[in-house]
Amino acid sequence: MVEFGNDSRALERERKQIPIQFMAVLAVTLLFPAVHAFAAANPPPPKLILQITVDQLRGDLPDKYMKNMPDGGFRYLKDQGIWYANARYGHANTETVVGHTSLATGADPAQHGMVSNVWFDRETGKLAYNIEDPRYHVLTEGGDVDKSTEIDASQALASTDGRSPANILVSTFSDELSLSSNGKAKIFAVSVKDRGAVTLAGHNGKAFWFSKSTGEFISTSYYYDKYPAWVSAWNRQGKPEVYSNKSWELLHKPSSYLYGDEDGNSGEVDVAGFGRTFPHAYGDSSNKQFNNYLTFSPAGDELTLDFAKAVIDAEKLGQDDITDFLAISFSSTDYVGHIFGPSSLEAEDNMLRLDRTLADLFAYVDKNIGLANTLIVLSADHGGPETPQHWQKFGIESNFVSPADWDKAPSIAKLKKRFGIGQALIKSFFPPYLYLDRKVIKDSGLDLAEVENAVADELMSIKGVALAISSSNLSSNQLPDTFLNRAALRNYNRKRSGNILILFQPHYFINHFNGEVVAANHGGPWNYDTYVPVIFAGSTIKQQRIDRPVEPIDIAPTLAEIMKTDKPSGATGIPLQEVMQAFK
Ligand SMILES: [Zn+2]
Known about the structure:
- By secondary structure, the protein is α/β, with parallel strands linked by helices.
- It is 35% helix and 16% strand.
- The strands form six sheets. A nine-stranded mixed sheet has the order 7-6-5-10-1-11-20-2-21, with helices on both faces.
- Strand 18 (512-513) and strand 19 (516-517) form a beta hairpin.
- Helix 2 (20-31) crosses helix 3, helix 12 (298-314) packs parallel to helix 14 and helix 13 packs antiparallel against helix 14.
- The longest helix has 24 residues, at 345-368.
- The protein is globular and about 70 Å long.
- It starts with 5 loop residues before the first helix and ends with a helix.
- Bound molecules: zinc ion.
């Protein structure tokens, strides 16, 4: 039995930092004192920090598809950036809001509180969507947001359209930048997904996301009373219309692709009207699903880029001596991964088009701000699994998990026999958490820990479950120091986490939520879900490929260190020495 926590993790990792660059500088300084005088003048801070998140970009994917990528996008990052090739999240529930908030805050969900896309709110007695906030409402432009068009399963669960960062319990790097400049730093975040933008904008920035019912980039009354003129002007242009009656087609001839002869693999989801094979028709813009189809393809990222360029222009980002912050979260890779899997012709073509979108963005920033004045950081909120069909093809046991089909009756009977109460013990189950009815347990004079552990034991007997662990065990400080226990603990927030965390064995996952079926679904603690790229480029950064293990939560403290702001309030990440060296 070993006690462990973030402190021991930090110490352990600190020891692994090898300050080679520091040694080199020292050697040069001793040999050539004049060089020291020159090197002592710190380069000026960047005019813009551009934080890019690619939703569901597993760490191996850029290299896997790099051979068909020309210059300017990923190749620019590879040839001129510091590329951390061994970055992994340490938390168990690798979902969108969890990863984005960890990137923004440098903290684990245990500290920042965004433990899952959806949790059960014990105060309201209802499931809560991570960033929903009934005190605010969407500022509408072209009509009300029609929730019936919302195909994002977790977003569809929100009971209001109000959004704010209020549920993020700690500060973000963007908050610290805002505090240190007394609000003068301009802070913006843009994404197709609301949670991809709200998280990175922090508490004092401005967030915009894509409305799948109106095809506009929208925000809420938390951020504005009414839209700035440039937002209305962008929305009036009706940019999505460009894709009306067009299709997503392959960029190159099929034979040049790794998956060129595998269009329509088994396992791919057949989205009605969009299909499993190229070309994927967007249909007419009057079609209710039109905007959803755009997000299922590279078009979603292209629109996000277009809106981000409008932000840069209208808000004059990076044009003065006060460092501004722009976060862009590209969501298409996630939707494509969910529908077709990451090893599909669609995912491959999406990567090539994402690469072109990035090249376009970098060229635009270079022209308007200068890449030398811009610090770029790119990462992902999580990786993603293969489809079970794909893994099976390679001899790896894999399958979907289907809680709806679990035979719960024997377990419920056992619990009833032991505690006198069965089904009534369970309040809510929304993966990865199961919530017990604390009132029922208390009123019956039962011991919460005993009930929790008994339910966890029953869950452990289900095929595909790797770990079902109770909150009382997680908060006991008596846990064996295992990989899964660590991941569970780093995801454990006493107020938001359920009574029992359920993790599935490798290559097993749920593919079915609220009537929506997906081909592949992240959310586990295994490498394919936790492995992401962490890349810094632009500014004074020089090319390096770093193989030592780092974590995406190291990004925010690194940015804080470079900008000499306070660390985000819950940050436990460790500043990345190789990046900081470029600013000394
Ligand atoms: Zn996803």
